[in-house]
C-alpha cells in the first residue's frame, strides 16, 4: 500500500471514529430510554379537549414505552406558556408537548413569543383531528342551523359568543364563522374551555363553537342545543348533526389537529422510540374507541416527524393570512 493510500485510510478511519463518537451519547441514551416516567405537557387546563386527548394517548403510549407518562397541565396565554416550557426543557426525551393547531397560529397571534415555533422543537407526529360543533344554551330560540344563522344575523348586537381565550380552538372557529357570515359578534373570552361551557350550561352566554371532545357528552345529554359540525362529513358519534357545508355554509371546514413534539436536539434514536410508541398508541383499540366516542379522527398514517413538520408549515401560512386579515393580536 502506498503512503498516500495509507494516509487516506487513516483519514477515513478518523472521520468514521469521530462520527461514531458523536452518535455514541445518543445511542446510549436511546438504549436506556425511558428509564423513568416521561412528562407530557398539555398547555391548557385540565379537563379541556386537548387534555382529554393527551390522557388517553399517554395511557396507550405507556404500554409500548414501559414507563408512566405523566400529563402536566401548564395553562395560560393561549397555550404559549406550556409550549415555551417544553422549548426550554432538557432535550432528553423526558419532556414532550401535546399541542393542537395553536402551535401554528401563535406566531401570528402573539407579537412576542419566548420560543421559536419553527426551530425550537423536534416533531414526532400528528395524533388526531377533532371536528368542531356549533352549540348554544338549551333555551336558544333556533331549532336548526338555518334558524340559528338567521337569528344570529338579526340579533348579533344582543348575542354573546364564548371562547376559551385568544388562540384557543373555539376562538379560531369563531374567527372563521364571523368572517364567513359577514357579521360582527360580541365575543366573551374565558380562561379555558371548562368555564366557557359552564356558562353555556348556566345560560350566562349564548353560544360557542368548540371541539367534539368537549361537547359530545353535553349534546347527547341534551344539556345544550347543537346545530352543526365543522367536518367534511358527519361525525359517527353524532350522526343526526349535519355539517355546516350541507347546512348552507358551503366550504366551511375547521378541524383541530393535534401533534406531539420534543425539544429541539433530542437525539434521533430517542425521537424514534417516542414515535414508535406514538404509532402503537394510535393503533391501540382502547384509544381508537375513545376517540371515536368523542368524534375525533385518529391520524395514524401521519404519525411521523416529516408529516407533522409539513403540516405545521402549511397551517402556519394558512392561519397567518387569516389572522392578519382579521386584525386579531395578543400581547
UniProtKB/TrEMBL annotation:
<dbReference type="Pfam" id="PF03401">
    <property type="entry name" value="TctC"/>
</dbReference>
<dbReference type="InterPro" id="IPR042100">
    <property type="entry name" value="Bug_dom1"/>
</dbReference>
<dbReference type="InterPro" id="IPR005064">
    <property type="entry name" value="BUG"/>
</dbReference>
<protein>
    <submittedName>
        <fullName>Tripartite-type tricarboxylate transporter receptor subunit TctC</fullName>
    </submittedName>
</protein>
<keyword id="KW-0675">Receptor</keyword>
<keyword id="KW-0732">Signal</keyword>
<comment type="similarity">
    <text>Belongs to the UPF0065 (bug) family.</text>
</comment>
<feature type="signal peptide">
    <location>
        <begin position="1"/>
        <end position="30"/>
    </location>
</feature>
<dbReference type="InterPro" id="IPR006311">
    <property type="entry name" value="TAT_signal"/>
</dbReference>
Amino acid at each position: 500500500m502506498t503512503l498516500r493510500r495509507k494516509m487516506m485510510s487513516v483519514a477515513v478511519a478518523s472521520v468514521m471514529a469521530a462520527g461514531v463518537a458523536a452518535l455514541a451519547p445518543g445511542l446510549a441514551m436511546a438504549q436506556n430510554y425511558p428509564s423513568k416516567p416521561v412528562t407530557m405537557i398539555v398547555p391548557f387546563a385540565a379537563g379541556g379537549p386537548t387534555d382529554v386527548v393527551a390522557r388517553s394517548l399517554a395511557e396507550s403510549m405507556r404500554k409500548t414505552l414501559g414507563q408512566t407518562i405523566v400529563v402536566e397541565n401548564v395553562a395560560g396565554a393561549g397555550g404559549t406558556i406550556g409550549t415555551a416550557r417544553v422549548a426550554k426543557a432538557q432535550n432528553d426525551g423526558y419532556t414532550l408537548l401535546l399541542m393542537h393547531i395553536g402551535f401554528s397560529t401563535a406566531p401570528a397571534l402573539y407579537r412576542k413569543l419566548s420560543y421559536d415555533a419553527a426551530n425550537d422543537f423536534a416533531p414526532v407526529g400528528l395524533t388526531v383531528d377533532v371536528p368542531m360543533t356549533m352549540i348554544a344554551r338549551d333555551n336558544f330560540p333556533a331549532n336548526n342551523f338555518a334558524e340559528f344563522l338567521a337569528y344570529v344575523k338579526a340579533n348579533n348586537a344582543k348575542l354573546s359568543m364564548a371562547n376559551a381565550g385568544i388562540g384557543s380552538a373555539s376562538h379560531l372557529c369563531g374567527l372563521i364563522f364571523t368572517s364567513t357570515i359577514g357579521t360582527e359578534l360580541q365575543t366573551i373570552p374565558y380562561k379555558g374551555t371548562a368555564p366557557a361551557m359552564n356558562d353555556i350550561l348556566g345560560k350566562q352566554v349564548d353560544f360557542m363553537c368548540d371541539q367534539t371532545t368537549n361537547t359530545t357528552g353535553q349534546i347527547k345529554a341534551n344539556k345544550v342545543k347543537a346545530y352543526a359540525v365543522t367536518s367534511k362529513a358527519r361525525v359517527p358519534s353524532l350522526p343526526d348533526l349535519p355539517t355546516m357545508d350541507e347546512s348552507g355554509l358551503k366550504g366551511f371546514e375547521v378541524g383541530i389537529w393535534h401533534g406531539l413534539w420534543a425539544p429541539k436536539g433530542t437525539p434521533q434514536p430517542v425521537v424514534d422510540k417516542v414515535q414508535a410508541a406514538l404509532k402503537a398508541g394510535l393503533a391501540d383499540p382502547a384509544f381508537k374507541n375513545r376517540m371515536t366516542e368523542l368524534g375525533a379522527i385518529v391520524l395514524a398514517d401521519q404519525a411521523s416527524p416529516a408529516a407533522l413538520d409539513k403540516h405545521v408549515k402549511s397551517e402556519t401560512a394558512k392561519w397567518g393570512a387569516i389572522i392578519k386579515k382579521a386584525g386579531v393580536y395578543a400581547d
